Amino acid sequence: MPRDNMASLIQRVARQARITFRSPAGPAFGENLHRLQQLLDEVRAEDLHLAPRGPSAAAAAAGGGLPWAGVVPPVSYMHICETESFSMGVFLLRSGACIPLHDHPGMNGMLKVLYGTLRIACMDTLPPAAAAAAPPPAAGPCHRALFRSRQHYTPASPPCLLSPHTDNLHQIDAVDGPAAFLDILAPPYDPQHGRDCHYYRLLEGPPPGPGAEQPGLPREVWLMETPQASDFWCGGEPYPGPRVCL
Q: Which of 94, 77, 93, 96 shows the shortest CA–CA distance to 185?
């Protein structure tokens, strides 16, 4: 059964997010962010009336007139709330689905797994002057990045955090079954204010020679900006959990 405080918990998360991201450059930001992280770590799937599953057939309605309309998408999104300073919602991934490597320009973010297992690869962009070698052959502009980590996250894991400068690029894969995560982005994506989502492909260098070990992490890599992959899209479906009022 859902816990008695489920409504107050997600409401408290939203209120703390509003407090935290109202002044991200203020002196109390670190303390407020820590408090938000603690609250987010308490959230479980049952608090949002969710049971383990992938995107539903209803999510296909978000396809509109596009070629894949009517097909259950690999990922769907449940909108919970949004203000000028942050947005919050739930992403549902079917088994084996991948949210490709993408960025969050000038944004903070927090991700808490609700069910399933996610493999999350995190990277930082590096200034052009940091390039130690020429990029590999590619069909488009390349960017230097630091591949910081690749870890598995479950409901028992603490939230995965990103900032405008650290772990700002990430790829999310559902491992061994469907998965879902609660997502907070601050401020929300807004192309008119320079916060559009860009996708990238990792350009690995030549394979190591015989007997050589695979390079560990962190390590510098090259990325090429790409269009959104044709096999990735995100549908929309109703959020079934407690209402959030801000």
A: 77
